[in-house]
Design goal:
Helix content is about 15%, strand content about 10%. It has three helices and four strands. A two-stranded antiparallel sheet has the order 1-4.
Amino acid sequence: MLRPAAVPAVLTALMRAARAGRRYREPAGAARVPSLCSAAAPQPVIASKEPFPVELKADKTYGWCSCGHSKRQPWCDGAHKRAAPGLAPVRFSPSRDGPALLCGCKRTRSPPYCDGSHRGDEVRAAPVPPRA
C-alpha cells in the first residue's frame, strides 16, 4: 500500500474530491493528460442504401455486421477487427421463422432490423464504398 506522502498532489486532490462527493477540478497550471476515452467512436460505413431481405430461422443465432465493412453483408465476417475495431457484430436470435429486412445503411435505431433510416438525407447523400 502506498503511503499518503508518496501519492502525487493531483491524485490526492482527486481522492479528496471523491470522498467529499464533489466533482474533481484540476489545480491551476496542472498539466492536462488527454483522455483515452474521449476519442470519437468509430462510425459504420454504409454497406447498402437498401435493406437486405433475408430468411431467418427461429432460435438460430446470427451475427449482423454493424460496421459495414463485411464482404458477406448483412452478416459479419470479422472485418471490423481490422477496419473498425470499436465496433462489434450484433448477435441475435429471432423468435420465429420468416422473412426479415436487415439494415444495410447501418444507421437503424433498432439493429439489426431496418427502420427506414436509409431514406434519410444523410444516407441518400453519402457515397457507398465499392465492393470487391
